[in-house]
Write a structure and sequence with these properties.
Distance between the termini: 49 Å
Radius of gyration: 21 Å
Structural class: alpha+beta
Strand content: 25-35%
Amino acid sequence: LLPDAGALASVAEQGFAQALDVELERVILRGSGAGQPMGILTSPALISQAAETGQLAATIQAENIIKMWSRLWSRSQSNAVWLVSQSIFPQLYTMGMTIGTSGFPLWLPPNGLAGSPNGTLMGRPIYTIENCSALGTVGDICLVDLSEYLLATKGGPQMASSIHVNFINDETVFRIVFRCDGQPAWNSPLTPKDSSSTVGPFVVLATRS
């Protein structure tokens, strides 16, 4: 196909670059640490905030967000971001706070569905990534300070192609190599002097089942 479509190589390279971005996100979040970076979700420094008593499966409540924020290390509050699965957005749209016998929505803009939804929680940006977990499981919503994650790279992505590997089939083979390693800077959560609850730069919500 390459001789017949001059732009095909650049389209393929763009696709490879996007795939590399997704894979790098995966290992930073989920990497095992064996032959690849150690991810945030596998780190001993990870804090898992328990669900509320009686909380329904596969839900997110305002109390979850507030308590996750309370477990975030104070010096990370200006750097932290929310990494979320796209599957949690129905929960964010309908999330509210009950006051007495009534309640009010917390995340929708003042003019409701007519306006753009808020792009922040607790003043910090929300980023949707496909490597987050499905709604209701650990990793569906993560509050993380990525400045506390150490990532080392060796040069940039190296792309190459060869017509010889599958010469007999008249196929061109593409290869992309990217050298990196990383792990969280913390070995464990921190217990502040004024609290018995641990804090840290990486907080997730426990499974709700």
